[in-house]
Design goal:
- The protein is 34% helix and 22% strand.
- It has 485 residues and is of the alpha/beta class.
- The chain has 3 domains: 94 residues, Udp-n-acetylmuramoylalanyl-d-glutamate--2,6- Diaminopimelate Ligase, Chain: A, domain 1; 222 residues, UDP-N-acetylmuramoyl-L-alanine:D-glutamate ligase (3-Layer(aba) Sandwich); 155 residues, Alpha-Beta Complex (Protein-Tyrosine Phosphatase, Chain A).
- The strands form 4 sheets. Strands 9-8-7-10-6-11-12-13-14-15-16 form an 11-stranded mixed beta sheet, with helices on both faces. A 6-stranded mixed beta sheet has the order 17-18-22-19-20-21, with helices on both faces.
- Strand 12, helix 9 and strand 13 form a beta-alpha-beta unit.
- Helix 12 runs parallel beside helix 13.
- Keywords: ATP-binding, Cell cycle, Cell division, Cell shape, Cell wall biogenesis/degradation, Cytoplasm, Ligase, Magnesium, Nucleotide-binding, Peptidoglycan synthesis.
- Its EC number is 6.3.2.13.
- Catalyzes the addition of meso-diaminopimelic acid to the nucleotide precursor UDP-N-acetylmuramoyl-L-alanyl-D-glutamate (UMAG) in the biosynthesis of bacterial cell-wall peptidoglycan.
Length: 485
């Protein structure tokens, strides 16, 4: 694409050099630059892309987009100076990849918990309706049936537009996307057009990055502030900040709830570890999901599908066929007669939701054993809270490693234990080795008991000192179950 056409998306302060160049690619990482590429220098949280301009030129960049022009300018390079490259990179990428969100309907899902479940279930539902559909999620990205591995909840703007561009080119009608708070602040979604936004809930998370809960809330709200008036904004009326999210949006606001008057109202009529009977807008439906938080997630899915024009009766029929997302309240029955649940819960609130759901279904007929850890190099303030919530709602807690990253696992465990008093400590043992911790929980469990293995969910690795080694909670449980037969 001609440089002059790409630059129509932004307002350059100045352009030095040839605007008639053919640009063959665009990147923010100088290592990924090839001949004829545009390199966009962005001041990131870790490094400043301006320091890598010489490397980008060495690798073949012919266009440099920057906020500060280098002192020494190469005569064969075109320099584009902008006031804010972080904001511009998404707009440049959207233009370069053919404005993909003008060719498909993009729906964003944001909130602390439930994003993956809601986005994935909508993806599965609309595929079952017969559409080609894309998914951008924590677990995996999909272009219809093709899996594209992912490393971040929301990719960088160039990767994201490239992915959405492929979805559009391959005929996807819809794309469902998790929108993280980081991606809003870092303007990774800049330039994208959403036809709808869904809010799940908001609780303490990512304070290592946002510093305060207010900043975190503002990041989520900014997504809804940016929706166009033709879009819908579907919000959870059961969350105290649900209506705060949509108070300044131009989009059409709709609500869902298990407890209050709303557009999409639900009620749990029956529940067990095999599923639930729900009432949704005065119609009953059996679903293969467990727990009130999943009932809330399913209401969001139902509401979004209806807002996208699907008939309520058709949506209910599809809801009854959907299955839980990998690693999200994933229940397995042991040969010994206890139930093991693998869940991604890695915040205090998520642990509360999962453990309270277990108690609602268990109804005192067995004990609850929780295996839990906390990730390294992340918000340390939530560690003692996670231990406290686990102990309050469990008969036994085994504190272990999650992804220690560059911290010592025992230091993380100690941070969690620091939140407990002497009486609470009597319920707790700590085992650094996660596999051994899960094995110990299984040895302690009796028929009717429930083991919650929390924190990693769908993940198939342990991140230790920068090395990701294979580790899958579900595989560990399968191995233990085989030994019980």
């Amino acid at each position: 694409m001609k440089l002059e056409n790409i630059l129509k998306a932004v307002s350059p302060l100045q352009v030095i050099g040839d605007e008639n160049l053919e640009v063959t690619g665009i990147h923010m990482d100088s290592r990924m630059v090839k001949n004829g590429f545009m390199f966009v220098a962005v001041k990131g949280t870790q490094t400043d892309g301006h320091n890598y301009i010489p490397k980008a030129i060495e690798n073949g960049a012919t266009v440099i987009v920057c906020e500060q022009l280098p002192e020494k300018q190469e005569t064969h390079i075109t320099y584009v100076q902008l006031a804010d490259t972080e904001d511009a990179v998404g707009k440049l990428a959207t233009t370069f990849y053919g404005d993909p969100t003008s060719k498909l309907d993009l729906i964003g899902v944001t909130g602390t918990n439930g994003k993956t479940t809601i986005a994935t279930l909508l993806y599965n539902m609309f595929r079952s309706f017969g559409y080609k559909v894309g998914l951008v999620s924590t677990v995996c990205n999909y272009i219809d049936g093709e899996a594209i591995p992912t490393e971040h909840t929301t990719p960088d703007p160039i990767t994201l537009n490239q992915l959405l561009g492929r979805m559009a080119d391959e005929g996807c009608k819809y794309a469902f996307m998790e929108v993280s708070s980081h991606s809003v602040v870092q303007k990774r979604i800049s330039g994208l057009r959403f036809v709808g936004g869904i809010f799940t809930n908001i609780t303490r998370d990512h304070l290592d990055y946002h510093k305060t809960f207010e900043n975190y809330l503002k990041a989520k709200k900014a997504f809804f502030d940016g929706l166009p008036k033709q879009a819908f904004a579907l919000t959870n009326a059961d969350d105290k900040n649900g209506l705060v999210m949509t108070q300044n949006t131009k989009a059409k606001v709709a609500t869902y709830s298990l407890h209050t008057m709303c557009d999409f109202k639900g009620k749990v009529l029956e529940d067990s570890f095999d599923g639930m009977l729900l009432d949704i807008n005065n119609r009953e439906v059996n679903v293969q999901f467990i727990g009130r938080f999943n009932a809330s997630n399913l209401l969001a899915v139902y509401g979004a599908a209806c807002l996208l024009g699907k008939k309520p009766e058709d949506v209910l029929l599809k809801l009854s066929t959907l299955r839980p997302v990998c690693g999200r309240f994933d229940a397995k029955r042991s040969p010994k007669g206890y139930t093991a649940i693998v869940d991604y819960a890695h915040t205090p609130d998520a642990l509360v939701n999962v453990l309270e759901t277990i108690h609602e279904v268990l109804r005192g007929r067995g004990h609850v054993i929780t295996v839990v850890g906390a990730g390294g190099n992340r918000d340390k303030g939530k560690r003692p809270l996670m231990a406290q919530e686990s102990v309050k709602r469990s008969d036994k807690v085994i504190i272990t490693s999650d992804n220690p990253r560059f911290e010592e696992p025992q230091d993380i465990i100690n941070d969690m234990l620091n939140g407990l008093n002497k009486a609470e400590m009597k319920k707790v043992i700590s085992i650094v080795d996660r596999k051994e911790a899960i094995r110990t929980a299984c040895m302690l469990a009796q028929p009717q008991d429930v083991i919650l293995v929390a924190g990693k969910g769908h993940e198939t690795y342990q991140d230790v000192k920068g090395v990701k080694s294979h580790f899958d909670d579900k595989e560990v449980l399968d191995e233990i179950f085989k030994g019980e037969q």
